[in-house]
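Structure ticket #2291
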Amino acid sequence: MNILTTLASAAFGSTVYLTALSTVKWLSQLNPRVKVTGLVATGMVLCALIGIIAFASQSVVLGFIVGAGLTPPVHRWILQRRKRVASS
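Resolution: structure written out below.
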């Protein structure tokens, strides 16, 4: 397993998570018809992306899962920390 490939995939997984989160937040503010269409398109893109990554290699899949798995709690922690600093 190539460590650089795993780390690069982890960074990519983190980026995909944050991009998907931003897209869903933006779509939530739109017309319901556009929102549903956008969410379906986002889901299809994510499924295709995961399929391509799964086809690549084991280290790529491992890195992608680690990156996408670690990003949500870290992102929440950063947001909570900003709120505490701003209120102090």
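Closing remark: The chain is about 90% helix and 0% strand.
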